[in-house]
Each structure stands twice: as C-alpha cells, then as structure tokens.
Amino acid sequence: MARVLVAYATKHHSTAEIAEAVAGELRARGHEADAVEASAATAEGYDAVVLGSATYAGRWRREARRFLSHERDRLARMPFWVFSSGPVGEPKDDAPAEDDTWLEPRKVIEQAEAAGVREHVVFGGRLPEEPDGFIEKAMVRNTPEQFQDRRDWDEIRGWADRIADQLAG
Ligand SMILES: Cc1cc2nc3c(=O)[nH]c(=O)nc-3n(C[C@H](O)[C@H](O)[C@H](O)COP(=O)(O)O)c2cc1C
C-alpha cells in the first residue's frame, strides 16, 4: 500500500473533480490517497505523487507550476505522474498535433520529464458553469452543450488503475 498525494490546480473546479476521481480510484485499489490543492500541498511524507492542472491559454495554473518547481527534488526521488485538463468543444476542433503546447505546456512537460515523470496525459476538460468575463462567456456560448464537458470518467479511472498497478508492483 502506498501513500499518494494527488495535487491539483483549478480555476473552475473541474480539475479538482478529476483529482478526486483519481484519488478515489487509488483508494478503491487499496492505496491511501489525498486530493489536495497544489498551493496547500507538499510531497513530504508521501510515497508517490500525481500532479494535475487545468490549462488556460496554453499555460498551467500558477499553483501547479510552483508545486512542480518547488518539489522538483522530492519528485525526482519518487514515482510521479502528471495530467493536464483541457480540451473542450468538438473533438474535431482540437488543436493540431503540431500545436501540442495548447494541450500540454512544453516547459512544464520538460521540467516533469527532467524530474523523471512516469507518464503525462491530457484529459478532456469542462467549460465553466459560471463563466467569468467576456472570453469565458463567449467560449461557453460558442460551444455546443454536449461538448462543454469532455471529461471521460472511465478514461480517468482507467489511468488511475494503471498507477495503482504500478504502485502495487
Ligand atoms: C479562457 C479559457 C482558455 C482556455 N485555454 C485552454 C488551453 O489553452 N488549452 C486547453 O486544452 N484548454 C483550454 N481551456 C479549457 C480549460 O482548460 C477547461 O475548461 C478546463 O477543464 C478548466 O479546468 P478547471 O475547471 O479546473 O478550471 C480554456 C478554457 C477557457 C475558459
């Protein structure tokens, strides 16, 4: 049994729900797991870390970037995984493969890889239910309702299962 920190950074809470789902699946698989906001989290005392952030305009949230750089040395000594939560709207409109920085900020992934991240994945996101400001409101207005929440809970739990397997191994 491992003690796992699932640290996350969110603006409109949908990434927090992904983190809770990952932590819940890890617990169902017999591990101890805490989902904690990245600004309040430390890797100290844990055996493994999952770090996730919402992506806005090609950037991770500041709290997740800070966590990654502050905890880099600890992370380098333990298994850790990364997820980004982002794409919304019609899948056919997702950014082209050559523009992957929209989905996963390159600098963040380089830092995670330098610290030995086991895997980094991108999960579909959810547009805000209560959008702030003109840009968010326009995005919500211009996105068909069925594509406003692209989170795939089976995919998310399946990923957490793979982490649970590796921790058990
Ligand atoms: C103004 C705005 C900018 C966004 N920029 C990106 C982006 O660059 N890449 C991406 O994949 N998703 C982008 N998204 C989608 C968000 O990442 C998605 O809604 C995410 O699930 C929000 O997470 P949160 O609810 O935890 O804040 C953007 C959404 C908004 C409203």
From TrEMBL:
Superkingdom, natural source: Bacteria
UniProt xrefs under InterPro entries: Flavodoxin/NO_synth, Flavodoxin_dom, Flavoprotein-like_sf, Protoporphyrinogen_IX_DH
Signal peptide location: none
Domain Flavodoxin-like: 4-164
SUPFAM superfamilies xrefs: Flavoproteins
Protein name, entry field: Flavodoxin domain-containing protein
Species assigned in the record: Agromyces aurantiacus
